[in-house]
Queue: 2 jobs
Job 1
Amino acid sequence: MENVNSLFKNALRVAVAGFGAAIITAPLASTGALAQVAGSDAFNLPEDVSFIMEQAENRNDRRATARVNGNIITGTDIDERLALILAAQEIALPEEEVARVRLQVLRNLIDETLQVQEASAQDMEVTQEDVNSSYERFAVETRGMSVAEMDTYLVSVGSSPRSIKRQIQGELAWERLLRRNVVPFVNVSEGEVTDLWTRLQESRGTTEYRLGEIFLSANSVNSQQVRSNAEQIIAQLRQGGSFVAYARQYSEASSAIVGGDLGWIQLEQLQQPQLEAAAAQMTAGQLVGPLEIPGGYSILLMIDQRQIGMADPRDAVLSLKQISYNFAPGTSQTEAERQGAAFIAAVEAMSGCGTADADAAAVGATTVDNDEITVRQLPEALQGTLLQLSIGQTTPPFGDLTDGIRVLMLCGRDDPQETAGPSVDQIMGQIEDERINRRAQRYLRDLRRDAVIEYN
């Protein structure tokens, strides 16, 4: 169970890591893409629904707070959590999107409250000392800040330490509940793991994919509304929104806690023909969806592709020297062209990395070294060029009059070793994680069903 336990050890760190992406996560819950939802026939619903009373335009505003089994979620709780999300966005969200995020925040806070209440009822209450310790560890180890600096940052974006600590409390409570009530009852046989490992070995040399997924559950009653929501999310992503942020906030799949990242998989591991067919046609960086699958809709992002068991040239570790020439403020176009041409000529005359520092200084250029950077860490436009270089050669110059012009000189390269793919233990961990998440979804669904929730 080592891999399963590591999931929970890292859950809090992942959930609150990276204010640049999104602090808020959906609770660890679901593999909703695999859930079968009963149709509307179970309710004997009419084809033409006619409401007796019209919905008030400001209904969402009036239902901004809630009482969950007696515990109050205030408007301030929602505002502070919402502020974290908005601060993490690279683009300003339209008013209707903010309203939709606000409703999701309320749902997340309700789930957190239910998780904390359940842990307390089972004598696994999370103490304030536990929360403060985790908060301090996150501030220092993950953000490189003191607690005081983290407090100041949160206040500066319109939130507060209390909001993050509330989320930490929910994460710790859920971890404890799953450890006791779910993890011990999940079993994976050696036979099914061995069978999957064998199939993977037989597929050596074929392509595997690193995918991101946002899954939204739907049934026959709300399918159109959920699809519309998915289309709005896609529109925001295409305008520059963070996929990780939206996955953490909206996705109902188990991968939400890690920003929707499914890791390296083969297409058949998706277990959905619609997703397999779409992913097979995608290229790195491509976004597709919404894709209708049993139980709802999925949005897919192709993060990367590679050959199973084969070394990926982009994993080569390079030793690079950046040689830069900056133009003085006010330099005319003509003079910049003359200086640039002289710099390029000087670079072409260089005899490799050994004399590059002195040669660069002679023409007023500067150098910066990086001896441990992989090809895939570099902009895509540079990756192919660098893979074709020999030691001592440089890329074509790039830049402009504002930032100056630069070249990268290759000073060394360590090629990657071939990999055998996931081990038996890793495969077992993946299957266990999936089954834990299915049970966790059902567990949370039961808590919601039994809850007494009053909206204000």
Job 2
Amino acid sequence: MAPRRSTSADKNIVDRTKPRRNPDVARTVREARDRLAQQPGNPVFDREMLRLHARALTGSAVVVPLFAIAVALAGLFAGMGVVVVLWAMTSAAIYAALAAFAQYVGRAGPDEQTPVRISFLMLHGATGFAWAWFSGLGCEACQIEQFPIIKAVILLLAIAATAILAYALRGALLATFAVPVMVYLYLAFENGEPVQIVMGGLLAMSLPFFAYVSSHLNRSTVMLLSFRTEKDGLIAELETANAISDEARRRAEEANLAKSRFLASMSHELRTPLNAILGFSEVMADEVLGPMENATYREYARDIHDSGEHLLDLINEILDISRIEAGRYQINPEPVILCDIVEECCHLVALKARNKDIHVIQDFEPELPQLLADERAVRQITLNLLSNALKFAPTGGTVRVRVGWTAGGGQYISVKDNGPGIPADEIPVVLSAFGQGSIAIKSAEQGTGLGLPIVQGLLELHGGKFDLRSKLREGTEVFAIFPASRVLGTNRSAEAPIQLAAAS
């Protein structure tokens, strides 16, 4: 059953207090599209990479000073003197300045990225000066033969750590360790020790290797940023579609509210004079107040009465479909016998069928149990289906009306005619409100196109469904199916014939 709304819902249908999101969404879309157009080398894109680099340095700001302090303590213990302490203090100060600048960049985000990049490279070059100083340190007093190897290992660890931390800034690794490695190689060849030369060569080969690793991480980060930008763009497009949908829904609700108010007003304004027209025209046609000498006047009075009834039926159908679409059509379920209602409806249309020489065949399943349904709605469903069948059945044709079980234990009404049928591509049009097929448009008995949509709406309120099957030049058969949940006290046996296995 469709959700019901309160009588005060009209005033709350359109929420005009909700802030419009269109300007914000449009701005988000523009920003997202600008980011989608960015490529590496674009100032905005490179600024994002510099911020990533700044966040990486800020997160590891304490690592290098602690490492320098540990090296200084080890050097003092080995007897290297105060020179190692000076180196440690200088290194800690330079890295502290680098971390402070990185924190400023990450927090402020300056507009121009080129000076920021140069500043970063200069600070990394300053840290390279500290590592070059470390490469030139000696240890004659401590007399540790493996000291060159220890320095090489420390430099190798520093190169690896910098390659991982500074991947977002291209050239940072070479700016930091190109000079220290050259200093180490110079001292190695000057001393002429094979082990130191081998370690120098190892450092020289490791530098381009870690530079490749760093560039690979840089490309991966660029790809991730691109994916994130595309995701932001998709989200922005979805927000735009959502905003457009909200605006369209708001306008539709306003139009629906205006339509409901118009129909509510016009139904009274039209029905009042129509009742007078129908009453007076019937009095005149039946000559209740005296004979009418002119027969043409009597015919006019009958035509006026018939036209008024047609207009009243049209108004009632429009009001019914409006209430159904608005969810305000309330049904009052009660136990009914489906066969009795359908039989009464067949009697009501019997005169129209005789006038067109159409034979109505009734085929009802015996002893059907009661159905929990709205009697007025079931009657309207049946009359709409019968009226359509009689409208398109040819003179001398037949209309077959069936009532029986569905395969799922429900009950159904079937109305079949041997008329011209409906083309397959026109069935969705016929089932839509005010929709009419090409045959109906050419027919002399044109309707409003609301009969079948009303049937569908009333069946949905009962939890049922509607099915239409048609073939050109063979006729049309329609099914109004009520679910098994509305059948009361079913006594159906397993051997009972199933009349509508396919439709259920």
